[in-house]
Amino acid sequence: MIPWPAPVATAPVRGHVVVPGSKSASARSLLLAALANGPSVLGGVLDSRDTALMRAGLAALGAVFEDLPDGRVRVSPAAPVTGGGTIDCGLAGTVLRFLPPVATLAEEPTRFTGDAAAAARPIAGLLDALAELGARVSEPRALPFTVAGGTFRGGAVTLDASPTSQFVSALLLAGARFPDGVEVRHVGGPLPSVPHIEMTCTLLRRRGVRVERTAEHAWRVDPGPIAALDEYVEPDLTNAATLLAAALVTGGALTTAWPEVSVQAADDLIGVLAAFGARVDYSPGPGGRLVTVSGADGVRGADVDLHAVSELTPVAAALAAVADGPSTIRGVAHIRGHETDRLAALASGLSELGADARETTDGLAIAPRPLHGGTFATHADHRLAHAAALVGLATPGVELDDVTCTTKTLPDFPGLWSRLLGVAG
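Above: the chain's sequence. Below: its structure in token form.
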């Protein structure tokens, strides 16, 4: 890999940024369209490695995708779902967790493989749940593995989803196609990223699926058709918050589209930036509203619980590293099982640049110290790359050992970042 020098901001960044579609919503909408009772046309689907892997995986299970001239995609559902192939999960948690329940709808076994680092991502709890419900699942419960229908009918199952809420979403997304539906109950440690489960339920209801939250940590999906639906995927607000954070770091102001009603944790995400000192203003915009984030008062230290929006932890850590006082990030112990151990990687990477960054039981403690240049190890993790780029805005000499990992959610992050700063990419 050729190191990528993070551009330094020579002036406050200002302007309007356009953010591609949500990775999380794109994955769910593609899957539901592939299981629907007729063709759907989707707009705004993120063009990234993760969504390409999701499309390829759904195609291996029988769905057909047609790219339309206007940038939308027509999805013809798998009818029936077919097994017998191999699905490459890459490093995509959505593919790794969302597609095994779909594979139970086929009699022939489907094989799942992935990147070397994907083998460390939590999956055993979901595979155990599928086996308990009657699916044929290979041993050991780790990549590579195979899944087939067997005597699978769905029904009630209890699992520990504390490693990732995607275990719950995975079962709910396919649950309407199970003969007996599905009822999922979480028992275990704190359940992370509940807004992502709420996103799953909202998108299911839009397609006519009856889904109910029966208890604080229990959900039920009734069996029945998943309606075909033409829809537009909203922008990825985690990526939007990452870009908007550049205004806070540089003392500038950036504006982007911000949905009034969102399937993402919109208020929580923008609230993190506000906690670190951003001024947030809303205004009317074409087809909705705009949000403007400005940072004239600089970055201040903050104490934030990111349990609901843990994907933003690297951005919060980067802000903490350039803040005017100490910061504490809490509620994110589970991100040790993300693309990499994000807590260890952030503590190590920021410390290498001079920060006082230490792991805690469930997060990070970061105190301001003078920063200096150096190579930041991204561990093939797009969110870590975003964090390093943010630190680099205020710290000359920061280099990312690998910027290509950002294609996971932003196909041309280096170009987008450079244009944001008004420098040559």
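The radius of gyration is 21 Å.
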